[in-house]
Amino acid sequence: xxxxxxxxxxxxxxxxxxxxxxxxxxxxxxxxxxxxxxxxxxxxxxxxxxxxxxxxxxxxxxxxxxxxxxxxxxxxxxxxxxxxxxxxxxxxxxxxxxxxxxxxxxxxxxxxxxxxxxxxxxxxxxxxxxxxxxxxxxxxxxxxxxxxxxxxxxxxxxxxxxxxxxxxxxxxxxxxxxxxxxxxxxxxxxxxxxxxxxxxxxxxxxxxxxxxxxxxxxxxxxxxxxxxxxxxxxxxxxxxxxxxxxxxxxxxxxxxxxxxxxxxxxxxxxxxxxxxxxxxxxxxxxxxxxxxxxxxxxxxxxxxxxxxxxxxxxxxxxxxxxxxxxxxxxxxxxxxxxxxxxxxxxxxxxxxxxxxxxxxxxxxxxxxxxxxxxxxxxxxxxxxxxxxxxxxxxxxxxxxxxxxxxxxxxxxxxxxxxxxxxxxxxxxxxxxxxxxxxxxxxxxxxxxxxxxxxxxxxxxxxxxxxxxxxxxxxxxxxxxx
Length: 481
Known about the structure:
38% helix; Aldehyde Dehydrogenase, Chain A, domain 2; 15 helices
């Protein structure tokens, strides 16, 4: 990669400030390579390049079939470079090499191929409303898209935005999280190999408060696609109001994972583990509130706590590791402070509960932690911890479980576990969340929309409806009288 540079208008250049910084490997606490520390001047240049590419360049005017072929080629290139991309992702995030290389980077490649197929299928409608007029609609690209992505799934969540935006004919500026920029920069190289016209895709690295908000405020940007915290999402809404930008916001979550007494408990235990400990709990849709029907509470907890003991915490590059470090020292301290708050509020730690010591003691490792005796009034049940911390809450009946599950300001995801199909469907309908899994957790497909209710945001990513946020509908009336 081009050390210490940003990617603007199809070329690599030093940031206007000339400054760089070095992201930290959370497993070793050692600095990684040099990355450009951009500022508002670089956003100005990147947006100007994207604006010119949209207003004057070939990308929006290209045959949809040709555009789709290039987007498909991007998916192929991601798959061809999966080992390098996975290593870069794990170095920055602390996620295991297995998760990066076998799950997330290949899924991102699938997302590009899925939306490549949509490029030639974006169309309007002819509406034969009257004899004296020919009336129809067009679906056209929004224009310049600013994508701001978090550090927990840096490239996968970027692909959810880049692929539909490019397939629809938009141009883009990507702002990766400052902790995890390396796969975004590698992808810019792949865009050059794929033959993407200059200015269509740009990457600017640097601090979010300065670089990200400059992107949000710029009047030449037509849409912002953001994934991150609810707090920052609200700030983006306020800043975007000045130019009435289109927004799609995928924000925080405190998702209920509800286990009924008639569930397959072995499967539900595996699902609970995946729901909270996959990617160290740094998942917006994490099943961080586990609701157990009282009749099976003790049996379930015995199985769960026994299984947690087998979860290997360690070096993310070690293929035997199942949970790496959280992304940063600041995030580790935040997670540990929530664990202490849980103790202070009277919840019982039944597994974990502290910093995990791995090797020489370096790295931001947190033990997989389970609290029992939690209520929805506690901070650990109300606030998004974004770490490997599970809150277990008992319930008495179907109605009680659903009601308690819905007692949250969030609404991103949920799961229900039961052998009763009718019960499962009633619960799925009653839970206020954008995704509800039945007898599963954390399963995704490029064809299925993902997004939230309530303070988990609005808009959907992936699926055919994901394209709606990257197109405008235009009505054309041709008078024939």
